[in-house]
Amino acid sequence: MAIVIGSGAGGATMAKALSESGHDVLIIERGPAVSGSDAYLQYANVDAGIRLMRAFCLGGTTMVSGGNALRCLEEEMKGYGIDLSTYYAAIEDELGVKPLPDHLIGPGTRRLMEHAIDLGYPVSRMPKFIDPDRCCMDGLCAFGCPTDARWSALSFILDARANGAEVVTGQTVDEIIVRHGEAAGVRSGSRIYQDDLVILAAGALETPRFLQQLSLPTTPLFADTFVSVGGVLPGIGMNKDVPMGFYIPYDGGIILPHYSRPFQSLLNEAGFSVAEEDIIGMMVKIRDDDDGSVGEVIRKGVTVGDAERLIDGATHATALLTGAGVDPRTLVSAPLRGSHPCGTARIGVSVDTNLETTIPGLYVTDASVLPEAPGSPPILAIIALARYAADRIGR
């Protein structure tokens, strides 16, 4: 049996791949199994200086993702001797990854996209793992998808179950058991699950704590820090747009259309009485510095370099918003958040190029292993790395 701790992109991918290759698989997830429409209730965000975003439920944070499917760190991985190109291509085909189609480009997104193109920005439509025929365009992807139009790790978990995998929810793993220097199972409360293959995919804020218990090295935290900037454009209706329908790369990160739920209250506090449909916004997401740490307390701040990248991106976003018709007096910015905690068990330090730790049989396959801040959605990279690792187990 292989024991998989966590059921997000990395854990679910490993569970599916290992069950397909004949392993008995046990998935242990600390959160509950929930429907897509209730996934937002499972957010377990952490205030660490900036607000770090995650969810505890079956399927993990994929249940509240925007459905974005950008390749990231592909060239950087080659520096470690890891070529993910064939894995990316296979995953894109399997998940039906395609640029967001024209009929799912909402009015606010379209207005910003057309203005950015007119100004000569390098605009690309966001590749998505969203079934366009099932999308209800409610603008709530990050709260959970009520029609399951957006892929989530639940589909891989269902595949693993069909191959005989067992899934346990609502149970927290307390300890990874090591005997004679090798992985031997896990302890959850008074229960012991024994096996010599343990896959650690608990997320970049939990995985390093397991490694620290075993005196294994961990690494500083990235989080793809982002800021959302918005203002008033009466009747634009961006609150119903499929989020992040296009992206603009810039030196330091990417800029995307984004309706942030805090905008309305921020505008009301600033003296503007507006409805949700009267607000338009953009997100600036940066490749941030690794100044974060995970221990008894989780900390993630903003370095001078981070601030410069955020200001640079926000300058572009503000220009695009005002050019699209926003009254500059109404511009507000939401508090800083980190959407992709990662990097706390990096390849080359905490794990080798097979994603195995120095304890034989203990692997890490979540965002912890990313060697650099992606600065863009990492789900595709996590799936690709997990499949890469699964192919090497038992070689």
TrEMBL record:
Native source organism of the sequence: Methanocalculus chunghsingensis
Record flagged with keyword Flavoprotein: yes
Gene3D superfamilies referenced in this protein's UniProt entry, alphabetically: FAD/NAD(P)-binding domain
Keywords: FAD, Flavoprotein, Oxidoreductase
SUPFAM superfamilies: FAD/NAD(P)-binding domain (SSF51905)
PROSITE patterns tied to this protein: 4FE4S_FER_2
Protein name as annotated: 4Fe-4S ferredoxin-type domain-containing protein
Lineage: Archaea, Methanobacteriati, Methanobacteriota, Stenosarchaea group, Methanomicrobia
Entry-linked PANTHER family: LONG-CHAIN-ALCOHOL OXIDASE
Residues of the 4Fe-4S ferredoxin-type domain: 126-149
Keyword Isomerase on entry: no
GO molecular function, one term: oxidoreductase activity, acting on CH-OH group of donors
InterPro entries noted in UniProt: 4Fe4S_Fe-S-bd, FAD/NAD-bd_sf, GMC_OxRdtase_N, GMC_OxRtase_C
Similarity comment: family membership: Belongs to the GMC oxidoreductase family.
